[in-house]
Amino acid sequence: MDAAERIAQLETAVAARDAQIAEQQAQIAEQRAQIAELERQVAA
Predict the structure, then answer these.
(1) Which residue in 13, 20, 21, 36 is a FRET match for 29, CA 20 to 30 A apart?
(2) What string of pLDDT tens digits covers the 44 residues of the chain?
(3) Which residues of 21-43 are buried (b: 16+ CB within 10 A; e: fewer)?
């Protein structure tokens, strides 16, 4: 594997990791919204 192939491989891995991070951030945002709703219900 030459340097260009290795760079391409690493860029693909980074893109996959970035996509996974974005998905996890979306899940966290959803969970925070659920927590806020539960807190609202408890306060009511």
Answers:
(1) 13
(2) 899 999 999 999 999 999 999 999 999 999 999 999 999 999 98
(3) eeeeeeeeeeeeeeeeeeeeeee
What is the sign, positive or negative, of the torsion defined by CA atoms of 13, 15, 18, 23? Answer: negative
- Distance between CA atoms of residues 40 and 44, nearest Å: 6
pTM of the model: 0.78
Q: Tokens 């893109």 — which residue?
A: 15
List the structure tokens of 24: 């996890």
Instruction: Take residue 26 and report the two structure tokens written for it.
Output: 């979306």
Domains: count for the chain: 1
Residue indicated by tokens 């980074």: 14
